[in-house]
Design a protein that fits this description.
6-stranded mixed beta sheet; alpha/beta; 494 residues; Rossmann fold; single chain
């Protein structure tokens, strides 16, 4: 791909990008949110058409007018946002759009057989070809998306943040699959904000910034991490977690006793004080997200009590939880937390409409003023409050989610994977914001699949395994190996 240029209304997404990939390699594509990575792979996948530049496939100049043409060439793309269809079976999802048929009849048994082979190849034989995809966890749906990519006769597989919803064991399995694919001569374009993954899996690196190629084809082994971060951000970004935590916590804000959700978790108990950050660690599917959703009122508890500010909180109502001062930034921000076609300001004020009501109508000027204050304070880019929020990068969408609760004001803020899909620069800003909220007296409960993030940000760590609390103690009493032992083996030691 040579000198690719792509314009969108009011923005130049690609400004002369050069990129190449070789058979049998893992070429890592890096850059901050908004650098142009997604646009570049959508051009390769046929979803966008470049305004200028050249694409050569196996030394022939080609145009890729549609995703179907890309698949015909041999380019399969796994997007960051899960693209499976609930209500269809696993096999139907994998062969969606290229169904196996003969004489006008679908060959269901062959599709199930091939699906079974693909799932075995990916190390997940427990997923059944006839299972409804809607019943799978986010990690299971990601595996189905991988299987769909492999079901095509692909020569290049694009993986956009494939590990974002996977636990450490599943990441290891993913890397094993990638290594086997490249050993067969396939090329993999790998996009991730987790630089430690790039070190483990990558052969070469291309860095984009502001729609331009900063460098292309660098050997991973020859490039220090600090240099990569500086190329992506234009500055040195320290790898700390937002500075020191609160030295002395306030009163208990949130008290949870014996909380249970049928068939998900049971007997969960903990407390969080004003200014304290409690981190929930565990594997994907262990029940961490469901604990937050139950506290937020999105799921009715089967047992247990929740006390907020010394008063009982009846679970099962989001409105009740929000009115009492609980906020949630969910893991799937696009599908669960944002109104994508609404402007930035409306997404920021979404939980605080009563404050801006005048005679039964919303005062949009007041909404914009409040939103603009947070946009400036959090340095959202672009800083246009009327811009549809779907046009913002992942990091800026996440900052807008946090701005919503800053406008509302929370006693307890629940954060589910707060830095998922967020670049290294925005990640540092979010860490600093979490610390700032804690210093202002907010009690923070956060879930993260990155153990170093939990240990770096949290004052207290709760380890969840198979729906049960297997450890609850100060951060300085446990290290990464101890957390891994607990979540991988379920060994309950304090």
């Amino acid at each position: 791909m040579t000198n690719l240029i792509k314009h969108f209304p009011g923005a130049k997404a690609l400004d002369g990008v050069d990129f190449d990939v070789r058979a049998g390699e893992v070429h890592c594509l890096l850059g901050q949110n908004g650098a142009g990575k997604s646009t570049l792979i959508k051009v390769l996948a046929g979803a966008h058409q470049p305004d200028d530049g050249e694409i050569r496939w196996q030394d022939q100049v080609v145009t890729i007018p549609s995703p179907t043409k890309a698949l015909d060439l041999g380019v399969a793309t796994m997007y960051q946002e899960l693209d499976v269809v609930d209500g269809l079976t696993v096999a139907e999802n994998i062969y969606l759009g290229h169904e196996l048929s003969r004489g006008g009849f679908l060959r269901h048994s062959e599709a199930r057989s091939r699906t079974k082979d693909l799932l075995h190849r990916l190390g997940h034989p427990e997923i059944r070809p006839g299972q409804d995809v809607g019943s799978l966890s986010a990690a299971g749906k990601q595996i189905v998306s991988m299987a769909r990519a492999l079901s095509h006769d692909a020569r290049v597989i694009v993986m956009d943040e494939p590990s974002a919803v996977l636990d450490p064991e599943e990441v290891d399995n993913l890397f094993h699959v990638v290594e086997s694919l490249t050993a067969e001569g396939l090329a993999v374009i790998y996009i991730s904000h987790r630089l430690e993954e790039i070190r483990r899996i990558g052969d070469r690196i291309t860095v984009l910034k502001d729609g331009r190629t900063v460098t292309s084809g660098l050997a991973v082994a020859d490039t220090p991490t600090g240099d990569l971060i500086e190329m992506m951000t234009g500055r040195r970004v320290e790898s700390d977690f937002g500075g020191a935590g609160v030295e002395e916590f306030g009163d208990v804000v949130l008290q949870v006793d014996g909380l249970a959700l049928s068939d998900v978790f049971e007997d969960v108990s903990f407390e969080v004080r004003a200014g304290q950050v409690l981190g929930l660690a565990g594997l994907v599917g262990a029940g961490r997200s469901e604990i937050l959703e139950t506290l937020y009122g999105a799921r009715p508890a089967a047992a247990g009590t929740v006390t907020l500010g010394g008063r009982p909180l009846r679970t099962g109502s989001v409105v009740r939880a929000v009115n009492r001062g609980i906020g949630l930034a969910p893991e799937e921000r696009k599908s669960q937390g944002l109104l994508l076609d609404e402007p930035v300001y409306r997404n920021i004020t979404l939980s605080t409409f009563a404050r801006f009501a005048r005679g039964g109508f919303l005062d949009e000027r007041a909404e914009r003023r409040a939103a603009k204050e947070q946009i400036a304070a959090l340095q959202l880019a672009p800083d246009d409050p009327d811009r549809p929020i779907r046009t913002l990068s992942g990091g800026n969408q996440q900052k807008a989610m946090l701005a919503r609760w800053l406008v509302h004001g929370c006693e307890v803020l629940l954060l589910d994977e707060p830095t998922r899909g967020v670049d290294v620069g925005a990640r540092a800003e979010i860490y600093g914001l979490i610390r700032r909220l804690a210093r202002q007296g907010t009690a923070v409960v956060m879930v993260s699949s990155e153990i170093d993030e939990v240990l770096g940000l949290a004052d207290q760590v709760l380890v969840i395994a198979d729906g049960a609390v297997v450890h609850n103690g100060p951060t300085d009493q446990i290290d990464e190996h101890g957390v891994l032992d607990l979540v991988m083996e379920g060994t309950a030691h304090e």
